[in-house]
Fold this protein.
Amino acid sequence: MDIARRGLLAAGALAGGMVLARPVLAAGLPVQVGADSASPAFRAAFERLVAFARSEIEAWGFPGLSLSLLGVNGEVATAGIGFANLDVRTAVTTAQLFQIGSISKSFVAVALLRLADQGKIDLDRPILSFAPDLPVEDARVTTAHVINHVAGFPGNAPPFPHETGGKLWSGTVPGAHFHYSNSGYDMLALLIQRATGMAFPTAMRQLVFAPLGMEASEPVIRTRDRALFASGYGPLKSDRAWFPGDRLVEGSWVDIERAAGSVAATPGDMAKWMRFISACATGAPQPLLSAASARRFTSPAVAAPDFGADAKYAMGLAGFAIDDGPVLHHTGGMITFSSAMTVDAGQGGGCFASVNFTGFDGYRPRRVTAYGVRLIRALAAGTALPDAPEAAALPPVAEPGNFTGRWVWPDGVAMTIEARAGGLVVSTAGRTARLRPDGPRSFRTDYPHIPTDRLDFEGERGRAERLWWGSALLGRDAAVPQQPSDPKLAALAGRYMSNDPWVGSVVVLARGQKLLVEGFGELAPHADGSWRFTDPELSAERAWFDATVNGQAQRLSLSGEPMIRQS
């Protein structure tokens, strides 16, 4: 499941665990390469890719990376880089499974396209006409709407949400608006079960994995297979922002059987998957789909700004251009893994990469897979191999002077924000902490023992004049009048948390006459008793507050996921 704006609930979640890991030692990262049958030219290109991937995880401080490169002519190379387990210092191997997250959606799309080719379903008819008991509220929703994220479903509602009678609602007219929904894909597993008469994992193996020879991979994540996986990691300090190089902790293991993202794969099997996608995109022979379904699978048609200004989406893949050449792309973020896959849609070939570090902090190895595509294009064209991008973790803050200076709390206490080594630091109450960008005018901090780690700046003409830290408004060089909160809104404000690692926590703030979910925007009351985001891009999401005790709401259900107030 991709965790970013597309994963509203998971944005507050961080991996938990108890095994303290030693820091990654960049100079000692092991590398295992599998490229025995590759030509010298392809091996030379892959060596460049491996070197860049290694420098990337060194810059970020990630444990390890699983990598595969597929050439235009079908050549394959794979690699394991870094550590599969930091505590015992075992190396990543090319035989280990990594969780690929939302890249799984392309597998689900192909399974449904196969069922359509067999006449068992019609992707363009209302889904309820095939399965009238599926949890869908709007009878106009088709299977294709769900696959393409235009059903209007919420991003991460649980199965059968209590607040809506167990059904997924459509926040927009089906077909009219892209809103990335893991919930919709999870429901598609039920449709696959109905159409095949098999359990979801069995159906996926028979429809997709077995015909492509992906024998090392698994359609679901289960404890019984844990020994086959690299260990996954997250931040040691989960109550504040993580910065590259901070210490890590082995994350919680969670069994996952979700069509939205439960495939686990080796890099060799991912090369087989990219070969299949390449064949569909270029019209080459492939064993699964009719020619029409292959074209539909690899012809993104729905505007999908989540993937870029000019990106389009269809059938589990996003399409856009790299250096004026079309690619098919997807990423995946899991509790303790982050992945990316990029396939050249014009001539075939592609690159897959996955790191064993949490996907909840925004990172995906996109730069690695984009560089891989550039390398195979240069090989195919017979031109010089491109230089690797500069390895870097967090980008420098643009125009730091807009944010630096002296800031004053409502009680007159001052703090300073300074630029240091391309970044920003905040100093107050005798402590100094780092800031990292989290939007054009927002930052997160690792300042200890605070109820919220997010700072939001306001001001005209670029230079910030006011700073929100939680519900407090700070002024530049002098305290500014506060905006008294509506008591009814203040009764809803607070930190709400779930022990489900997929849900995590959110902070609800009352700022004057506005109620906000920190990091996502303003909520407004609706006539049906729910609260809804004023941002049209979040129109499919809902919030419900209830269980009032001592004048405060004790429970928040955010798009159906319950969270309890924390003191």
Notes: Residues 1-26 have pLDDT under 50 and may be disordered. The two ends are 30 Å apart (CA to CA). Residues 9-106+203-381 form a domain with the Beta-lactamase fold (CATH 3.40.710.10). The first strand starts at residue 31 and ends at 34.
